[in-house]
Design goal:
Layout lengths: L5 E6 L10 H9 L4 E5 L3 E2 H6 L4 H10 L6 E5 L2 E4 L4 E2 L8 H26 L5 E5 L8 H5 L3 E6 L13 H11 L2 E4 L2 H8 L5 E3 L28 E5 L9 H10 L4 E5 L4 H4 L9 E5 L6 H5 L4 E4 L13 H8 L4 E4 L12 E3 L2 H13 L3 H11 L4 H24 L1
Parallel strand pairs: 1-2, 1-7, 2-5, 3-6, 7-8, 8-9, 9-10, 11-12, 11-14, 12-13, 14-15, 15-16
Antiparallel strand pairs: 4-5
Helix pairs in contact: 1-14, 8-12, 11-13
């Protein structure tokens, strides 16, 4: 375990974001034994223009104008910095040399804000933990001079359109020059190993607080009249991540099943023919604290993931949440899902997905539910962060041995 250190976290997700955030959970766990500065992503010029009415943009503008404090104490040992700067929007710049030039300028602006906060807090000999922030944190090793620079790889970001022009090139260089890479799936760990031999699988944590008091959960009104069996999904209903054909196949071949999809839809799902099926129910986005009430009444929980470069290596945190309530789970088979193979039904085709869903309904038992729960509850943030600590300590030892040699 690492204790008594000063840790700075940069990343892609805001502290105040309404979606679940690995990095926020990691920051809270770090802060149990260390001082932590969590750095919100800074405003860029294009977003400032396009989304000027959004609360997150307004907050950053207020900080820049001095109307709000940039540094706030979130809890014991943990501070949140909202940078008071605007960066240039460069993701689509074509010449590599021009991108690199302006990106370094952006990094300097960003680092100046972080350095100011570090000085005010009296942080020394920092550990820098970068959560997938490929561009803005690329030069922070030389600008902040951390004792350890760890890159956290939790998604294959470079396969997304936004990162298409420069993401793979910059991320490869970043992984090579950071001290270590830690990843939440074995697939992403193997990706890291291609660039940095100090790459480690650290697993995934999950906050099970909302899934523990199962008996008190009442059936939500908007699913009270939906007959069982209910085949349910909770998460983003996005065409980038979910296989529309797989869901359609379930609805057509099993009209007696009711498929419940809980989460915000993208435009492709909104325009799809799935809305024409009487046994497919789009519930929409619900608050995090409401989700367990829906999950309790699923007969089978599913993750009909679309296989793509964006999804194949991702650790699906929802699977742990499903299993924590003992639910039979059917999911698309991927490298990242292999660790769940003893507790989930993993399908390689749409027809197999249907057959395994039927099997999951037929053979569920109290004994299976107990085993699923026990497995899920081993995936805590405490355990995942312990693995991050081990990776950092191994890297520290490796660096010392290298210096001796």
């Amino acid at each position: 375990m690492i204790t008594g250190r000063d840790i700075v976290i940069t990343g892609l997700q805001s502290w105040e974001g309404d979606l679940g955030s690995n990095c926020v959970n990691i920051a809270r766990e770090f802060a149990k034994n260390n001082r932590v500065l969590y750095v919100n992503y800074p405003l860029n010029r294009l977003v400032a223009f396009r989304e000027k009415a959004s609360p997150s943009v307004q907050k950053r503008i207020n900080v820049i104008k001095g109307k709000e404090e940039d540094l706030q104490n979130a809890c014991s040992n943990l501070w949140v910095l909202t940078p008071g700067c605007i960066l240039e929007s460069i993701s689509q710049l074509k010449p590599n040399f021009l991108f690199d030039l302006i990106n370094k300028m952006n990094n300097k602006r960003f680092a100046k804000q972080i350095k100011s906060a570090i000085d005010r807090l009296g942080f020394k000999d920092i550990i820098l933990f970068n959560d997938n922030d490929i561009y803005r944190s690329f030069y922070l090793d030389e600008l902040l001079d951390p004792s350890i620079y760890a890159y956290y790889l939790r998604d294959n970001m470079v396969s997304v359109k936004y990162w298409a022009r420069h993401g793979e090139r910059i991320q490869s260089k970043l992984m090579k020059k950071t001290d270590l890479v830690v990843a939440n799936s074995t697939y992403l760990r193997d990706m890291g190993l291609k660039q940095n031999p100090q790459s480690y699988y650290v697993g995934q944590g999950c906050d099970f607080t909302l899934y523990q008091d199962k008996d008190s959960l009442q059936k939500p009104r908007d699913i009270q009249d939906i007959p069982h069996p209910i085949i349910g999904y909770i998460g983003a209903v996005w065409s980038l991540r979910l296989d529309i054909d797989s869901i359609r196949n379930l609805a057509i071949k099993k009209p007696e099943w009711n498929i419940v999809l809980i989460g915000p839809e993208d435009d492709i799902f909104k325009a799809s023919d799935l809305h024409l099926f009487r046994n497919i129910h789009f519930i929409g986005k619900r608050k995090q604290e409401e989700l367990a009430s829906y999950l309790k009444y699923f007969d089978v929980a599913i993750n009909p993931q679309l296989l793509s470069p964006e999804t194949i290596g991702n650790y699906p945190r929802k699977i742990d949440e499903y299993l924590a309530m003992g639910k039979p789970v059917v999911a698309r088979k991927t490298d990242a899902m292999e660790i769940f193979s003893e507790y989930c039904y993993l399908a390689e085709s749409n027809d197999e997905f249907l057959a395994l869903t039927e099997k999951a309904l037929d053979e569920n038992s109290k004994e299976k539910e107990s085993k699923r729960k026990a497995f899920a509850y081993s995936h805590t943030w405490e355990n995942s962060v312990a693995e991050i600590y081990k990776a950092i300590e191994m890297n520290t030892s490796f660096k010392k041995e290298t210096l001796k040699a």
